[in-house]
Amino acid sequence: MTICDLLEGYDPAVRPFGQNPSLEKRGPVTVRTSLYIQSISAVSERNMEYVVQFRFQQEWFDERLRFTNQNEFRNFEFINVARDQQLWIPDTFFQNERNGWYHMLDQENRFVKLRSDGKVLYNRRLTLILACNMDLARYPMDVQECLIDFASYAYTDSDIQYVWDRIGIEISDTASGALPNFMISDYQSDRCDSVTNTGTYSCLRVKLTLSRVFSFFLLQLYIPSAMLVGVSWVSYWIDWKSTAARVPLAIVTLLTMITQQHAINSNLPPVSYTKAIDVWIGACVVFIFSSLIEYAVVNYMGILDEHRQMRKITLNRTRLSTMADGSMQINPKTATVSGKGPSEKKRLLRKRRKLQLNLQYEDDENVELTSVQVPGKDFFRQNEPDWTLQDIGDLVYVGQRKRVELVRWCSLLSARGRAERIDIIARLVFPIAFILFNCAYWGIYLSEQERPDL
């Protein structure tokens, strides 16, 4: 009966009068507002939006709805308004809203309550998808500031003034539980009045500071990628001739790193600036690619020096054969050797045949040494024979000593030493460079990280 009496002749399209009697229509209506945020979830970096669920409460005075409670039948302070009873309600809209809905289960989550002095309390539960302009330059060590802006759609500030209630913003203790990668580190209330060609509109703003939880990215991204870089360094301890082992190792780690980079960027918007994660992934790709280039250089230098070694071995073999042929010049007509008797001729012929057989044996032995790793120089210095080459006419060949002498020269001219030295240098340079990069990377980004406390 009270509501029916109050709504008789009531026009819900006309706004109430203000509280200042010196102004026309007693000034604008003051709408006191408060929010109780229940949860924040589904923060999307790719779409730059987030989902928030909250209870939205507004209070204002409407003198047309004032009633007295002195009657014996009206001894109550508040009256609940039914859903089919229309009252004037501010046309509040959320400026950065992309989508939203009211909660209707198991009935509409909305109530309107009247107080005897004409104060109207309006409360409604909402879930909104709101835009959030994110700065991803420090991703994934970033801190984002997301907003909730609301204002009147049609009334200027001469008709409606929004102000914060005594407790304007409250956040549930479990609001951060639905955030997988963020935590609510701070929140503030502010104003965002906008001036347009149609007038000035009153606007209120909620600033939510969301800090990204870094432990997830440390375990799922940074540590695995650093391990891939370390795996690529294993090739420096593998023999440079083992192409089937070193090349696939570098290629597999490189492709894995590129795949991981693609998976990360697929969840991020194509921004025009460089992100912190791009610097890390790019550096890891460069280190892995450098290990592949290092093996290409090592392989090229090893093959180049190996060919040079073969040419020197061939030259030594030819020179020694020429020396042996020049020391035994036989006259075919007389079947004598110059300056030698018949017995001496037979002895020299036996020596010549023996020398030729040893030369052939040395040739086969040197060919095998070019494809098998030769021991170090110290081994042959320890077994170096102490003998000198005498006059050609008095050449006496000692097979075993001559064979060791040729092997010693092969080891000294081996091309494998330079390739191995490059690998040894890489074992030190690459880890030190990666450690220095880590010091610079974490020093720059962690020093700029700001995490305000609630």
From TrEMBL:
Please verify whether the record's keywords include Amino-acid biosynthesis.
no
Query: Which stretches make up the Neurotransmitter-gated ion-channel transmembrane domain?
Result: 221-442
Name of the protein this chain belongs to: Uncharacterized protein
**Source lineage:** Eukaryota, Metazoa, Ecdysozoa, Nematoda, Chromadorea
Membrane topology of this protein? Multi-pass membrane protein
UniProt cross-references to InterPro entries, sorted A to Z: GABAA/Glycine_rcpt, GluCl_TM, Neur_chan_lig-bd, Neur_chan_lig-bd_sf, Neur_channel, Neuro-gated_channel_TM_sf, Neuro_actylchol_rec, Neurotrans-gated_channel_TM
Say which species the protein is native to: Acrobeloides nanus
Compartments (UniProt record)? Cell membrane; Membrane
Primary localization = membrane
Which keywords has UniProt assigned to this entry?
Answer: Cell membrane, Ion channel, Ion transport, Membrane, Signal, Transmembrane, Transmembrane helix, Transport
GO cellular component, alphabetical, reads: plasma membrane
PROSITE patterns on file: NEUROTR_ION_CHANNEL
**Membrane-spanning segments:** 213-238, 245-264, 279-302, 424-444
**Example GO molecular function:** transmembrane signaling receptor activity
What family does the entry list?
Belongs to the ligand-gated ion channel (TC 1.A.9) family.
**Domain named Neurotransmitter-gated ion-channel ligand-binding: which ranges?**
5-212
- Write down the Pfam families for this protein, in alphabetical order: Neur_chan_LBD, Neur_chan_memb
